Amino acid sequence: MDDARRRSRSRLPDRESEPATYSAYLRERIYASFTGLAIVLVVSGSDHPEPEHAFLALLLGVVGITVAGFVSEIISTMLTEQTAPHRAEWRPMLRVAGGGFATVVTPAVLLALAWIGVLDLGFALDLAAFGYIATLAVIGWLAVRRSRLTVPARLGVFALLLGLGLLVIALQTLAKSV
């Protein structure tokens, strides 16, 4: 299978021919992953979490942040171009939104399995949290690895990104638990 066909099937924007869309796609995945992780951590920390509550909170939270990102794309396009997005602009915007929606699939399946009794809820929440953390770490590492920085500088920037990521998680968790 050639590269163009593989990309069209995966719906992942092409980094070389669509750098702005690719960047927005990754940014949306990062926002949605942080949101999903914060929700999973808050539900995990509650006294008596219920699987259906965890599932719905995660699904609605990630869908909400993704739709908000989509709306912000429409508004920013209208503000900068002084017109509604053109027909050709809708497909890339929907692909970017798909990056956010995609982050909820595996954690939602895990929580659905807990809801029907196949998995323990605590285990499902732990797996979902690990998945989100791994996603964020991989995206961060890919960004650092592709940079033109020296190896020590890459490690320093990656450590900074990890620290900032932990700060974001702490702030989101605190905000959702007060």
Provide structural commentary.
- This protein is an all-alpha fold.
- 81% of the residues lie in helices and 0% in strands.
- It has seven helices and no strands.
- The radius of gyration is 18 Å and the shape is globular.
- The termini are far apart.
Overview features:
transmembrane helix, 178 residues, membrane, 7 helices
Q: Could you outline the blueprint of secondary structure elements for this entry?
A:
Blueprint: H1 3-10, H2 19-45, H3 51-81, H4 87-102, H5 105-115, H6 121-145, H7 151-177
Organism: Microbacterium aurantiacum
Keywords: Membrane, Transmembrane, Transmembrane helix
Transmembrane segments: 30-48, 54-75, 96-117, 123-143, 155-175
Tell me the span between the first and last alpha carbons: 51 Å
Tell how many strands the DSSP assignment holds: 0
List SSEs in N-to-C order. Answer: HHHHHHH
Mean pLDDT: 86
Overall shape: globular
Rg calculated over all Cα atoms: 18 Å
Q: Based on helices, strands and strand pairing, what is the structural class?
A: mainly alpha
Q: Please summarize the sheet with the most strands.
A: none
- How many domains, in number, for the residues? 1
Uncertain spans? 4-9
Range of helix content: over 70%
Helix run count: 7
Q: Strand share of the residues?
A: under 5%
